[in-house]
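User: Fold this; tokens only.

Assistant: Input:
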Amino acid sequence: MTTETSTTLNEAGEPILITERQDGILIARMNRPERMNALGGGLPQALNDMWFGFRDDPDLRVLVLTGTGDRAFCAGADLRANNERAQQLGATSAAEMLAADRSPRINGSITSNNFHLYKPVVAALNGWTLAGGCEMAMGCDIRVIEAHAQMGLPEVKRGMGAKSTTHKLAFLTYLSAGLDLDWTGDPISAERAVELGMANEVVPTGKGLERAIEIARSLAARPQNYLRYHKERVFESLHTPLAYALSMEQRYPPQDQEGYRAGLEASLKATLPTAPRK
């Protein structure tokens, strides 16, 4: 196991993002517990660098993302930091701040996958998962939520929008549930999150990371070209006519990819471990 730390520190003088490597798995812990792991203080940039590093490292197969402590996975944007930034820029509103702080640099977004990450990402939701934190979780592929955790998009209560995640609610949930979450801004329980499709399974408090790593190990043992193939095809086929989606399967047949024979033989020999779903 190799542990790496961000050079940016939190208010306690600890690394703002802690990553560990375990047999092809990258475990990333957002480490701002004093701010409920809110997206400020250099954490967005640290996450941005981590996502690209994970994507481009051929030795890393699966990412597990979680937060430090048992209060929050991530509470979203750090409003206090945003206010301080607005004052620095002389802005009188959030809109003015965003306009003044606009940069030509493209930042990676796991929410919209604008950096084409086709490796599996498993989220361990260890507490409040709100606003930008909820959007981040929805950008992951599998979400394990602890029994005490809650998810929500409270932006409407602040006169703000949930931005790029609103469209994904229709895929993870259904229209009326998505509108309820978006319009009321009220959080939902772990059980309700699984019922709606916002999370995959509930685990006891304190067991989220353990279960997420268990799933990650199972995925890491799979032929990686197949994991990429299926994730890429799913993303590309969303909202496409069925005939076109099926034709994509013919243009990129999995059996033409490297490793097909090895993966088939391993499956026939039942050598691939599985993590039973609860």
